[in-house]
Specification:
Number of strands: 14
Largest sheet: 6 strands, parallel
Structural class: alpha/beta
Helix content: 40-55%
Radius of gyration: 19 Å
Distance between the termini: 40 Å
Strand content: 15-25%
Length: 308
């Protein structure tokens, strides 16, 4: 019997997640949205691409939250997108209500599911979903550092004129302007970029990575990124469904490592069938550790606005 994954939200990120996930041919997919008939139409379209794209999983759309019943994983993409000049924190109150309703339905219809949060502001909404659902922390996590690291990898590959496949990167901290790229843990075929790129260029690439989402928002002028966020999300779904034990930067509940207690923030973790199976505590230099702790401190302050 195939695994079942529900995607809540059939906007650009949600539909792209459904497409990339269908192409992996590893699970049946439910696409949920409140807009009447829209998820059904997108699911039907994706299904009809299957004979050409080479997948035969079931892709169904619904406006009824009960359709997620029995899901192994629920991917939460629903929420308002960032607009030009809007920070992720500006989205807080508007998206908190959306996430609350979704988390309550997940608890009702899919009590054994993993929750993968994509809705912004990411780290805060992941904490919110954990609190509302009451699920164990290992089963609630957010897609953050993978996307940020992917952007970093892209910029490094462009800088050096090398294959993106040979670049590995690590970006920690909050999924926002306080994220912490780690050049010493970013490599090209095992060679640290600190040996390949000047400090000045690394600083510029790191800054572009921090502003990567905002750069796309400005270019699009309406809405925000969706291809890379969706691809990053599907990598996480694949890691869980296939128990790949991937070491990935993601938003996980941290209570002790890195001197951070009681909150969700981007850290390296082993992701497998048990969800977040282990947090890896890297040896960070003083500046990077301070930056990570400051990022966490900023997000912890914002949690107070939701009453936590």
């Amino acid at each position: 019997m195939r695994k079942k994954v529900t995607i809540v939200g059939a906007g650009h990120v949600g539909e792209s997640c459904a497409m990339y996930l269908a192409e992996k041919n590893i699970c049946d997919i439910i696409v949920l949205d409140i807009i009447q008939d829209m998820p059904q139409g997108k699911a039907l379209d994706l299904s009809q691409a299957g004979p050409i794209a080479g997948y035969d999983v079931r892709v169904e759309g619904s406006n009824d939250m009960a359709a997620m019943e029995g899901s192994d994983m629920v991917v939460m993409t629903a929420g308002l997108a960032r607009q030009p000049g809007m920070s992720r924190e500006d989205l807080l109150n508007k998206n908190a209500d959306i996430v609350k309703g979704a988390a309550e339905n997940i608890k009702k219809y899919a009590p054994n599911a993993m929750i993968l949060m994509v809705t912004n502001p990411l780290d805060i909404m992941t904490y919110h979903a954990w609190k509302v659902s009451g699920f164990p922390t290992n089963r609630v996590f957010g897609q953050a550092g993978i996307l940020d690291s992917t952007r970093f990898r892209t910029f490094v590959a462009w800088e050096l004129g090398v294959s993106m496949n040979d670049v590995q990167a690590m970006v920690l901290g909050g999924h926002g302007d306080t994220m912490v790229p780690l050049p010493s843990y970013t490599t090209v075929s095992g060679v640290p970029i600190t040996e390949l790129i000047s400090k000045e260029r690394i600083a510029a690439i790191s800054e572009r990575t921090r502003m990567g989402g905002g750069e796309i928002v400005k270019l699009l002028k309406s809405g925000s990124a969706y291809y890379a966020p969706a691809a990053s999300t599907v990598q996480m779904v694949d890691a869980v469904l296939n128990d790949r034990k991937r070491l990935l930067p993601l938003s996980a509940y941290v209570n002790g490592p890195y001197g951070i207690k009681g909150q969700y923030i981007g850290v390296p973790a082993i992701l497998g069938a048990g969800g977040v199976e282990k947090i890896i505590e890297l040896k960070l230099n003083k500046d990077d550790l301070t930056a990570l702790q400051q990022s966490a401190k900023q997000y912890k302050g914002v949690l107070g606005e939701l009453g936590y």
